[in-house]
Every structure is written in structure tokens, then in C-alpha cells.
Design goal:
The protein has two helices and no strands. By secondary structure, it is mostly helical. It has two domains: about 40 residues; about 40 residues. The relative contact order is 0.04. The mean pLDDT is about 85.
Length: about 90
């Protein structure tokens, strides 16, 4: 008995349904990507400075964040090297 010819299921209809669902999922993925990009952009853009002092404080804050990130990365790399070193 051939299982491909089930009664009530037309292969062309099934393929059309699959194509339609694929298009829906693709659209949902594009919307998700756009939402993630917008959210990330909002998170990392510096606030608008009203005067020079606020602008200076924003630059100092960004510099401190960069320094902190570098130091944490160096500590992390050092601990990983220690973990996988040959001498224990």
C-alpha cells in the first residue's frame, strides 16, 4: 500500500500550506530582528546632553565603562588560562 496517496490530502495543498507558513515565520523573524536591533540601539546610545558639563560627564562615564570592560575581560582571560594551564 502506497503511503504517499492518503485520501483527503492533496500534495499541492500541503506544499502551499508549507510555503505560506514559511512566509509567516520569515516575516515574524524579520520583525523580531528589527525589534532586537531597536532595543539594542536604545540601550547603548548615550543620553542627549543639554550642556557641556553633561556632555563631559557622559564621555567620562563611557570611558569608565570601557576601562571596566577591559579589566573584567583581562581577569576572565587570566582565570581561563589558569584553569587550563599544564601546571596545577
Amino acid at each position: 500500500m502506497d503511503t504517499n496517496n492518503k485520501p483527503g490530502i492533496n500534495p499541492q495543498d500541503a506544499l502551499a500550506d508549507i510555503r505560506m507558513r514559511k512566509a509567516e515565520v520569515k516575516k515574524q523573524m524579520q520583525e523580531s530582528v528589527a525589534y532586537i536591533k531597536a532595543t539594542t540601539r536604545k540601550m547603548f546610545t548615550p543620553p542627549k546632553a543639554g550642556n557641556k558639563l553633561e556632555s563631559l560627564m557622559n564621555m567620562m562615564d563611557q570611558g569608565v565603562m570601557v576601562y571596566d570592560g577591559l579589566m573584567m575581560g583581562m581577569r576572565f582571560a587570566r582565570n581561563i588560562r589558569r584553569l587550563f594551564s599544564r601546571r596545577r
